[in-house]
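Let's practice the habit of predicting before peeking. Look at the sequence and jot down your guess about where helices and strands might fall. Then scroll down.
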Amino acid sequence: MAIDIGALMQTCPRKVHFWTKSELFHGLPGLTAFMTAMGCLPVKRNSRSGKNESNDDLFESTITTLLRGGVIAIFPEGTSHHTPKLFDLKDGASWAALQYAKAVGNPANYAPIVPVGITYEPLKWRWRNRLHVRFGKAIEVTDFLKEFELDQRAAVKRLTARLQETLSALTVNAPTWEALDFTARVQALTVGHDRGWQDLAVGSAASSLTAANDSALDSLNPRVTAYFSRLAKLGLKDIDVESGSIRNLSSLATDLLMQFVFTILAMLYELPFTLFHLPALLLLSFFNAREKFPESKAQIQIFGCFLALPINYTIWWLLLTIYILGAPIAPGSLTPPPTVFHSSLLASWYITIAAFIFGLPFPRAEDLRRHASESLKGTWRVLRATIVEGRETLREVVVERGRLRSELISIVDKKRH
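Done guessing? Here is the structure:
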C-alpha cells in the first residue's frame, strides 16, 4: 500500500489526501500531527476492530477537503492483499462522492471519481521494477444522484459496480496465478518483453479470454506450454529467441566477449556505491528475509530505507571522525584530542555529504550492471544451446514461436475489436 501511495503522489498533478486506517495515527509521539500534515484522513475499520464506531467525522473532513478543491485518494479494496485480481470493492468511495454531491447541490461543483490502475512488473517488491500508473476516464456522479435521493444503498452499489468494472479495465486480472502466468506468456509472445504491461489492452484481452475459457485460446495453451517446456530443456528463455535471428558461433562468441568486458566494467563502476551502502543493504536484507507476506516486503524496503540510510551514513561519519580525520589518539583512548575534534567533525561532515552525493547515481549504476549481466547470460545461453543442440534445433524453436505469435495476435485482436 505504501508504494501505491507514493505512486499516486508522484503522478497526480495536485496534492493528494488519503483515507488511512486510524491505527496509523497512534503510537509514536507526533505521529498524529505528521499524518495530518501529510493529508491523511483517519478511517475507522469496524470489520477489523470489532467495534461499531461511526465514520461521520471522516465523511465530514472529506467533504471539507473537497470543498477546498482538494483531491481524495481512496483504495476501495479496503485492505492490502496478494492475489492475481481485484477484490470486491468497498462502498466508501461511492458514498463519499454521492454525499458530497448532495451536500454542495450545484452540479458545477460535483467531484467526479477518477479511477486509477496501478500495475507492477514483474513483482511489486523487486528492486528497480517497472511501475505503470493509468488514469481512466472520470465517472460523473450526476447519473446516480436521482436514484440516491430515492434509494441511497442501491445508488451506491450501482456506482461501486461501475467503479469495479472501470478499475478492472485499467489493471491486469486473472482468476488464478496459473492463469496470470499464462497471460504474461501471451503478453511476451505478442508484444515482446521490452513493452511488457505497457500495452494493457493485450494483457486485459488475454486475461479475460483465459477467465472465459475461450476455446481458441484453450487450444493454444498446450502448445504454449510445450514451447516453454522445450525452452527450459534447452536452457533458454523466450527473450533469447525473441529477435528471430539464428546466429553463427563466431558472432555469438564475439558478442559474449564484448558483453563480458562490459559487465566487468559495469560491476567495477557499481562496486564503490555497493560498498558504501553495504551496511544499509545488509540491514534491509535482514528485515526482508524475515517477512513472508509479499505486500509487506515492498513496504519494508521503503520504510527500511528511512531507517537504514541514516544509520549507514552515521556509521561512515563516525569512522571518518574517529579513525581517519582525528589527530593522533592518546594510548587507550578512542577519542581525538579536543583541540582537533571540531575541525575533524566539520571535515567528516563535508566528506559524508560528498559521499551522499556520490551515492546518488547508485540506482542507475545498478541498472547498468543488471542490463549488462542479463545480456551476458542471454548470449551465453544461446551459445551453449547452439553448441550442444545445433542451429537447426534453435531454428525450429524460432519457427514455432513465430507461429504461436501469429495465432495469438489473431485471437487477441478479435477480442480487442
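How did you do? The CA atoms of residues 63 and 103 lie 8 Å apart.
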